[in-house]
Amino acid sequence: MSKRNTTIHDIARELNITASSVSRALSNHPRISEATKKLVIKTANKLNYKPNTIAANLRKGTGNTIGVIIPVINRFFFANIIHGIESISNKAGYNIIICQSNESLKKEAESIKTLVNNRVCGIMISVSAETENAEHFEATVKSEIPIVQFDRIIEKFNSSKIASDDYKGAYNEVVHMIEQGYKNIAHFAGPFYLNMYEKRFSGYKQALIDNNIKFDKKLVFEGFISREKGIEGMNLILNQHKKVDALFAASDLSALGALSVLKEKHISIPKHFGVAGYVNELFAEYIDPSLTSTEQFGEEIGSMAAKVMIEEIMYRQKTTPRTITITPKLIKRASSSK
Amino acid sequence: MSKRNTTIHDIARELNITASSVSRALSNHPRISEATKKLVIKTANKLNYKPNTIAANLRKGTGNTIGVIIPVINRFFFANIIHGIESISNKAGYNIIICQSNESLKKEAESIKTLVNNRVCGIMISVSAETENAEHFEATVKSEIPIVQFDRIIEKFNSSKIASDDYKGAYNEVVHMIEQGYKNIAHFAGPFYLNMYEKRFSGYKQALIDNNIKFDKKLVFEGFISREKGIEGMNLILNQHKKVDALFAASDLSALGALSVLKEKHISIPKHFGVAGYVNELFAEYIDPSLTSTEQFGEEIGSMAAKVMIEEIMYRQKTTPRTITITPKLIKRASSSK
DNA sequence: CTGAAAGCGCTAACAA
DNA sequence: TTGTTAGCGCTTTCAG
C-alpha cells in the first residue's frame, strides 16, 4: 500500500496530460473535451483518487466548514439545536465543527481561536454562563469571519441573533394560569445573570400586572432551577406563603421537584395548586400529572440560525445583522388545567 | 479593512527577515534567537496574525480533525456519546466534525466521502439502521484513514469496536426480575436486524433458561419499542397471556406505554406486575412509579472510543483493532422492586 | 481545447 | 542563528 494518496498529478502522468486538464475535467469545467473528461474520470476511479478538499479550499481561498460553539451538547435543548444546524448546513454543503465550552469562558475563547485558525467560514455561538462580554470575539471580527449568536446571546455585540422569545413564552404561560383561576402565582426563576431567566421573569411580572394581580417580590425565588431547589422552594412556599395557589417555574426540573412535594402532601393538582414549568423537557409529557410547559423549538432555532449563517457567508458584504426570535408555544397539560 | 489575512510573509517583510525565521519563531523552534523570537511575536500581535492551521497541515501532511458519523444527534444516548468524544478529542488537540446519517445508508456513504475528502485523520462511526455491510467503508481503507466503530457496529468489518454489553445488561435485568419473584416475564424487543436488540433478546432468553424458566416464544414481541407499541403490547398481554406477571422491555418508551395501561387498569405495580425498561432515559427516574432500567454510560462509550481513535491515529502502523465493551449498570427502581 | 506557470500559507531540508 | 529553495495538492490566469 502506498503511503501517499493519489493526486491529480498521478492521473495526469498516467494519461500524459497536464494537471490543469485533469483539474478541469474533474470540476466539470466547460473548456474541456468530453473525451478527456471521460478518460480522466475513468483513471481517477482506477487509481482510487480522492480529491483533497482542503488543498482546493486553500487555493481558492474558500472553505466549507462552519464552527459551532455551545456550552454543552448533551442537554436536550442544545442537542436539538445542533440537529437543526447540522441538517441545514449539510444540505448547503457545509460541514460543522463542534466545540463545547463547558460553561467556561476560557475554553470558549480557545475554541474561537482554533476555529479562526482552522479558517472556518463562519462561527455560530451560544455563549457560556461565564461570558459577560464579547471581547474574545474580536479575533473573528478582524479576520472577517461572520458570527451568528443563538440562544445565549451577548446583546452588545453586533451580530445576527436567533433566540426563543422568553418574555412572550413566560407571559403566555402565566396568562394561561391566571385564566385557569389561579390568583397567587409564585415564580422559580433562574439566575438573572443569564439573560433568558431575566426575560422569563419579566414576562411573568408583566402578565400579573396586565391582569391586575399585584406583583409580590417575595414570591420570586432566584436561582431555583434544579430539582432539589424545586423541592426546597416548594416547602418554603407551603410554609411561609400559604396564599400561593400556583407556581410558574422557569425550569421543568424545579417544577418536577415542586410536584413531588405537592404529591407527598396530598395537595391536589391542579385543583388546589397549579404548576407549570418551562423548556418542555422530554419527561414533562410522561410524568403524572403531566406538566404544563413551553416548547422552544430548539431544532428550529438551530436551522434558522444556520440559514442566517449561510447567507452571511455567501453575501458577507451586503448583509446586515438580523435579530430573529422564534416564538415558543405553550403546551397545556394536566398540572395546570382545572 | 484588508480582504486578506496577514501571513508569515507580512511579518517577515515588516522585520526584514525571511518567512522561515518567522515560522521558526512562531513554532518555538530551538534554532532561533530569543531576540528575533520576541520581535516576531510582537509584530505578529501587532499585525493581528492568525496562523493558518490548514495550510500548515497541508504542508506537514498531518491533520487535527476527527470525523464523527452518527444516526442522529438529538437523542439523549447519542448526545452523551458525542459529549464524551468531544471532551477527549479536544483535550488531545483534535477538532471533531459531526455528520448525521439520519438512518440513511446513502447519507452515511456521502458523509464518509466528504470526510475522506476533507482529510480527517480518523473516522468514528455508529452506523445507520439501513446499513448492513461495510462496503462504503472501503474509501477509508484505501486512504488509510483509521476507523473506529461504536454502539451500532458492523461485526464483519475489521476495526476497533466500542459498545455497550447488551447481552449482559439484559441478562442482569431479567435475573433481577426473577429474583424479585416474577415467574412469567414477557419481552418487548426491538427489530432484530439491529444487533443490539438481538443481543438484548439473547440475554433475556438465557437468563430464563439459567433459572429454569421455560422460554416461551409467544411472549416475545418484536419491534415493540415505541410508546404506542408499548400500549398495544401491554393490552395484548393482558388479554391473551393472563399468566404473565412481568415485562422486560428493550426500550424505556415501550415500558412507559405498558405502565400507563397497567395504571389505567389499576393493576398494582410492582406487586402484581413488574416492569423494566432499557436505556435509562431521563424520564425513567421521574415517572411514577419510577422505572427500573439499565444505564449504558453513553459518555463513557464516547470517551473510550475517542481514546482508541486517537491512539490509532498516533500509532497507526503498530496498532491492532480492539473490541471494548462497556458494562452497563442495572438501575433498580420502584417498577420492579417488590 | 490544452499546457505552462504561478501561488494559496506554510514548513523543512539544505546551505551558509 | 538565518536564508534559500522547494513543495504539500490544488486552481487559475494567460498563452498557445
Largest beta sheet: strand ordering of chain A: 2-1-3-4-5-11
* The CATH architecture of the largest domain in chain A: 3-Layer(aba) Sandwich
The total domain count of chain A is: 3
Looking at CATH, the homologous superfamily of the largest domain in chain A is Response regulator
Mean pLDDT of chain A: 96
How many strand elements of chain A? 12
Rounded to the nearest angstrom, the radius of gyration of chain A is: 27 Å
Helical/strand content category of chain A: alpha/beta
Contiguous low-pLDDT stretches of chain A (5 residues minimum) are none
In this structure, how is the largest beta sheet of chain A organized? 6 strands, parallel
CATH uppermost class of the largest domain in chain A: Alpha Beta
Distance between the termini of chain A: 72 Å
Portion of residues in beta strands of chain A equals 5-15%
- Largest interchain contact: A-B, 53 and 53 residues
This entry's quaternary arrangement is homodimer
Describe the global form of chain A: elongated
What does this structure look like?
The structure is a homodimer of 338-residue chains. Chain A is 43% helix and 14% strand. By secondary structure, the first copy, chain A, is an alpha/beta fold. Chain A has 3 domains: 8-51, 434 Repressor (Amino-terminal Domain) (Orthogonal Bundle), CATH 1.10.260.40; 63-164 and 298-326, 3-Layer(aba) Sandwich (Rossmann fold), CATH 3.40.50; 166-296, Rossmann fold. In chain A, the strands form 3 sheets. A 6-stranded parallel β-sheet of chain A has the order 2-1-3-4-5-11. In chain A, strands 7-6-8-9 form a 4-stranded parallel β-sheet, with helices on both faces. In chain A, strands 10-12 form a two-stranded antiparallel sheet. The model of chain A has no long low-confidence stretch (mean pLDDT 96). Chains A and B meet through α4, α5, β2 and α6 of A and α4, α5, β2, α6 and α7 of B. The structure holds a DNA duplex (16 and 16 nucleotides).
